[in-house]
Specification:
Belongs to the RNA methyltransferase RlmH family. Keywords: Cytoplasm, Methyltransferase, rRNA processing, S-adenosyl-L-methionine, Transferase. It is found in: Cytoplasm. It holds the Pfam family SPOUT_MTase. The protein is α/β, with parallel strands linked by helices and 148 residues long. It has one domain: SPOUT methyltransferase, trefoil knot domain (Alpha/beta knot, 3-Layer(aba) Sandwich). It contains 5 helices and 5 strands, in the order E-H-E-H-E-H-E-H-E-H. It has a 5-stranded parallel beta sheet. Helix 3 links the parallel strand 3 and strand 4. Helix 1 packs parallel to helix 5 and helix 3 crosses helix 5. The longest helix is centred in the first third of the chain and has 17 residues. The protein is globular, with a radius of gyration of 15 Å.
Length: 148
Amino acid sequence: MKTYLVMIGRTDNAWLNAGVEEYYKRIARYAPFEPIVIQDIRRGASMPEKVLKDKEGALILKQLSGGDILVLLDEKGRQMSSREFSVFVQKQMLAGIRRLFFIIGGAYGFSDAVYQRADYQISLSKMTYSHQMVRLIFAEQLYRPILF
């Protein structure tokens, strides 16, 4: 199984990039993994939030094929402990899933089309994190199941 982490926009913080890249390297040592960064869509003053989410959603969905599993990292998703998340990832591996996609949405969340396509929604916490910090937190959590 190959795991993908799809994100909207780049991170400019060097210290954050260093941490994220460290976990990406660790993950890739044990399992096929690929981060995918989708370029930010510039939101002009006249662009409604829904239009922005729809454009980002189209770019996200473009990454997927028919049998792929799509997991949204979303504040409304199911909360799991690290062990529960590890079991979740292992179940996907044992189910013979070829490609597992985790998605970090843009600042305004996901489009309706992405929600409809999603197989799962997971919340990392009741707390709110910046989309940049989620990259590091999630990469660390993704690394854990690979070790068990």
